[in-house]
User: Fold this.
Amino acid sequence: FASWADMWAKRGYVALAMDTAGNGPNKLHLIDGGPDQTDLEKFMKLPYSTVQDMWTYQAVADVILGHSLLASLPEVDANRIGITGISWGGYLTCIIAGVDHRLKCAIPVYGSGYLWEDSAWLQQFKELGPKEAQRWCDLFDPSVYLPRVKCPTLFVNRPTDFHYRLGVYQKSFRLVPAPKNLHMDITLKHSHQAGWAPEEIALYADSILRGGAPLAEVGEMTFLGKTSVVSQCKSKVPLRSGQLCYTTDKGPFEQRQWHANPASVVGDVVSAPLPEDRPITFYLNVTDERGATTSSLCKEINLPSAPAPKP
Assistant:
């Protein structure tokens, strides 16, 4: 997407938006372009000797080479390079951030690990069979690499994403030992154009690479009695508003309807009453004076246990 690179260039960055499907101009496949980017190339059964022919291996290697190319340019500060990717690019970002420790920040959009547990590709893992699926996960699942991430990381997603689903997404977030933040938007669509649109992405990059003001950090939610939640935030930019995002639906997270209620912000503290319906899954957002929104992790309260039958 040339427009993606243009967007970053207008912000003063040198950007490389690369094709990881082995294509050249006009999206024509190159003779030496490597594997295509379909599920066949991502999940094919191969002997160990040909692991290097797998799409993930080739894509990760190409992005690392792209980093080296950018760092070699005289107009680029090699000590201030970050990475962002969308969907499968977010998946790659999670891996590369744990492999290429030259990177100063990482912003995966939608991508996560634990794909064999819950994702849009459960059928592909089933078709691989247990042995091949385990091999794939050992080599290519981001959960193997996220614990190795050393650079600050911003995760961007929506709680209803069908591809990278909420439960495994939160598990993936927790794996990162480096400073991390979260932007969760119940209105976010899943597409490349929607994925690069949030202003929080560029503001986060600016804060790490250009000395800009950091995004707010929303602390873990705690309960005020049984009816409200509260979180202590950290923010160098004054907070403007808060929001409680929640669903009282059951079933897969990607099929639930989410709602948003105003939350109270006093200084760096955000709080909100909880709706009475159970079960309920919820999280808090805060928005600063720039309009940048960051999120807490979700919590879930299930229905109360049924009373034990009398003897």
User: Anything to note?
Assistant: The CA atoms of residues 131 and 240 lie 51 Å apart.
